[in-house]
Amino acid sequence: MSQSPARFSSGTTAELGESPAVDEAAGLVWWVDITGRRLCRSVIDSGETISWEMPEEPGFVVLDGAGRPVIGMETGLFGFEPQTGALTRMLDQTRGGHRFNDATVDPGGTLWVSTMPLDLTRGAGAIWRVDAGLTLTPVIDGLTIPNGMGVDAARLRLYYSDSHPDVQRIWTAALDPGSAMADQPVLFADMTAMAGRPDGAALDAVGRYWIAAVDGAALSVFSPEATHLFDVALPVMHPTKLAFHGARCDRIVVTSKRDGGQGGRLAFLTFDDDSVRGVPQARWNRP
């Protein structure tokens, strides 16, 4: 797999960039700076970035069906109005000392989210499904830094990881057609012997699982059968999450943590062959 040199966003440099949400029609990527408490928006073509201060640490941003940003923070899920900068609370996150962390929208438009303890208490993190009544239904518990979320609709399973240095594993859990949990989670991959820890993830068009190897300067790619296929080297040490984009969904944008180099900016990756084909990000079918 060959790739062109990465290009980077300009303007805002995040302390801890996360959660790229692509608006292909508008030519934009929304993303968050968690510890910098900012919501960011970058123009795909130019990389120009602007940002808005947030009142709490934002763990993720997703887009709804109309392309409006929805942000998971410490105390709840908030809709955001770019024209005014106004936030509208949509639901409460009631676990004190926790915040929303990773999220994914499945192909049916259901939003899945995770929460994590700010003090990294072992096993206090969890994964939830946001139901039609804007309620949080618990799905998985016993995690510390839940990440790596993605739904494989063809195989009816949820992927997730735990990024804590003492864990560094990825699991799958079977889903029934109604998006309720069916079976107990099973171990998918153990990354403790690999260069990076498992952070944010995305699935491609053939069901391969791509995950950011934070601290390892790479994206690690696994087959649906859990074989580690290859790594994509990155020019940032601490990648945090990726998203596919482009007219053919053959490009990748990656968020990262500040590292003294280009870390903390969006990295845009272009490949020189036809080996990369993602799927467009689904949007939340919010009530």
Describe this structure in words.
The model has no long low-confidence stretch (mean pLDDT 95). The N and C termini lie far apart (41 Å). This protein has one domain (7-270): Neuraminidase (6 Propeller). With 287 residues, the chain is mainly beta. The strands form six sheets. A four-stranded antiparallel beta sheet has the order 1-24-23-22, with no helix packed on it. A four-stranded antiparallel beta sheet has the order 2-3-4-5, with no helix packed on it. Helices cover 0% and strands 49% of the residues. It has no helices and 24 strands. β10 and β11 (111-117) form a beta hairpin. The chain has strands at 7-8, 17-23, 28-33, 38-43, 49-53, 60-63, 69-72, 76-81, 86-92, 98-105, 111-117, 125-130, 136-143, 146-152, 157-162, 169-174, 186-190, 197-203, 209-214, 218-222, 228-233, 239-245, 251-256, 267-270.
Ordered list of secondary-structure elements with their pairings:
Layout: E1 7-8, E2 17-23, E3 28-33, E4 38-43, E5 49-53, E6 60-63, E7 69-72, E8 76-81, E9 86-92, E10 98-105, E11 111-117, E12 125-130, E13 136-143, E14 146-152, E15 157-162, E16 169-174, E17 186-190, E18 197-203, E19 209-214, E20 218-222, E21 228-233, E22 239-245, E23 251-256, E24 267-270
Antiparallel strand pairs: 1-24, 2-3, 3-4, 4-5, 6-7, 7-8, 8-9, 10-11, 11-12, 12-13, 14-15, 15-16, 16-17, 18-19, 19-20, 20-21, 22-23, 23-24
